[in-house]
Amino acid sequence: MDAVIKLDDKVLPVDSKFSLENYNRLIDAKEADRLPLERAFKEDLKRRIEETSKYIKPSKGTLDQALMFIPSEAIYYDLLANKVGLSNVSAAT
Q: How far apart are CA 11 and CA 84, in angstroms?
Protein backbone atom coordinates (compact mmCIF):
# COMPACT_ATOMS: atom_id res chain seq x y z
CA MET A 1 0.00 0.00 0.00
CA ASP A 2 1.38 3.37 -0.97
CA ALA A 3 -0.95 5.70 0.92
CA VAL A 4 -4.11 5.93 2.96
CA ILE A 5 -6.84 8.51 3.08
CA LYS A 6 -8.22 9.01 6.59
CA LEU A 7 -12.00 9.34 6.68
CA ASP A 8 -13.33 9.81 10.21
CA ASP A 9 -12.56 6.52 11.96
CA LYS A 10 -11.76 4.53 8.78
CA VAL A 11 -8.96 4.54 6.23
CA LEU A 12 -9.13 4.14 2.46
CA PRO A 13 -6.11 2.21 1.14
CA VAL A 14 -4.43 3.54 -2.03
CA ASP A 15 -2.06 1.49 -4.18
CA SER A 16 -0.29 3.16 -7.07
CA LYS A 17 2.21 0.69 -8.51
CA PHE A 18 1.41 -0.35 -12.05
CA SER A 19 3.47 -2.11 -14.72
CA LEU A 20 3.49 -0.29 -18.03
CA GLU A 21 5.81 -2.76 -19.75
CA ASN A 22 3.20 -4.99 -21.40
CA TYR A 23 0.94 -2.03 -22.19
CA ASN A 24 3.77 -0.31 -24.05
CA ARG A 25 4.56 -3.52 -25.93
CA LEU A 26 0.88 -3.86 -26.87
CA ILE A 27 0.66 -0.30 -28.18
CA ASP A 28 3.81 -0.74 -30.28
CA ALA A 29 2.93 -4.22 -31.57
CA LYS A 30 1.99 -5.20 -35.08
CA GLU A 31 -1.54 -6.56 -35.49
CA ALA A 32 -0.30 -10.16 -35.83
CA ASP A 33 1.54 -9.95 -32.49
CA ARG A 34 -1.22 -8.32 -30.45
CA LEU A 35 -3.20 -11.27 -29.02
CA PRO A 36 -0.57 -12.63 -26.59
CA LEU A 37 0.29 -9.07 -25.53
CA GLU A 38 -3.40 -8.32 -24.90
CA ARG A 39 -3.58 -11.38 -22.67
CA ALA A 40 -0.38 -10.42 -20.84
CA PHE A 41 -1.65 -6.91 -20.18
CA LYS A 42 -5.02 -8.22 -19.00
CA GLU A 43 -3.22 -10.55 -16.57
CA ASP A 44 -1.10 -7.62 -15.32
CA LEU A 45 -4.28 -5.67 -14.67
CA LYS A 46 -5.96 -8.58 -12.86
CA ARG A 47 -2.86 -9.09 -10.71
CA ARG A 48 -2.82 -5.42 -9.70
CA ILE A 49 -6.52 -5.52 -8.80
CA GLU A 50 -5.96 -8.65 -6.70
CA GLU A 51 -2.95 -7.07 -4.96
CA THR A 52 -4.87 -3.88 -4.22
CA SER A 53 -7.85 -5.82 -2.88
CA LYS A 54 -5.61 -7.40 -0.21
CA TYR A 55 -5.51 -4.02 1.54
CA ILE A 56 -9.26 -4.15 2.18
CA LYS A 57 -9.53 -5.20 5.82
CA PRO A 58 -12.64 -3.74 7.48
CA SER A 59 -11.83 -5.63 10.69
CA LYS A 60 -8.64 -3.54 10.89
CA GLY A 61 -10.31 -0.19 10.21
CA THR A 62 -10.32 0.09 6.43
CA LEU A 63 -13.32 0.84 4.28
CA ASP A 64 -14.71 -2.07 2.28
CA GLN A 65 -12.99 -0.69 -0.81
CA ALA A 66 -9.57 0.48 -1.95
CA LEU A 67 -8.29 2.79 -4.67
CA MET A 68 -5.97 1.55 -7.38
CA PHE A 69 -4.24 4.53 -8.93
CA ILE A 70 -3.33 3.99 -12.59
CA PRO A 71 -0.40 6.33 -13.33
CA SER A 72 -1.11 6.65 -17.04
CA GLU A 73 -3.90 8.67 -18.59
CA ALA A 74 -3.75 6.54 -21.75
CA ILE A 75 -4.41 3.30 -19.87
CA TYR A 76 -7.07 4.91 -17.69
CA TYR A 77 -8.88 6.28 -20.72
CA ASP A 78 -8.65 2.99 -22.60
CA LEU A 79 -10.03 1.09 -19.62
CA LEU A 80 -12.91 3.55 -19.28
CA ALA A 81 -13.67 3.24 -22.98
CA ASN A 82 -13.58 -0.59 -22.54
CA LYS A 83 -10.58 -0.81 -24.84
CA VAL A 84 -6.82 -0.88 -24.52
CA GLY A 85 -5.18 0.44 -27.62
CA LEU A 86 -7.36 -0.88 -30.40
CA SER A 87 -8.23 -4.15 -28.69
CA ASN A 88 -11.01 -5.01 -26.31
CA VAL A 89 -8.77 -6.16 -23.46
CA SER A 90 -11.10 -5.32 -20.59
CA ALA A 91 -13.86 -7.59 -21.93
CA ALA A 92 -13.93 -11.19 -20.71
CA THR A 93 -11.99 -13.68 -22.82
A: 31
How many other β-carbons are positioned within 10 Å of the β-carbon of residue 92? 5
87 has which bridge partners? 84
DSSP 44-58: HHHHHHHHHHTT--G
pTM of the model: 0.73
Question: Using one digit for the tens of pLDDT, what is the confidence trace for 28-40?
Answer: 899 899 899 888 8
| Alpha-carbon distances, residue 49 vs 7, 26, 29, 90 (angstroms) | 22, 20, 25, 13
Distances (CA, A) of 21 to 32, 41, 64: 19, 9, 30
Q: What is the mean pLDDT of the chain?
A: 83
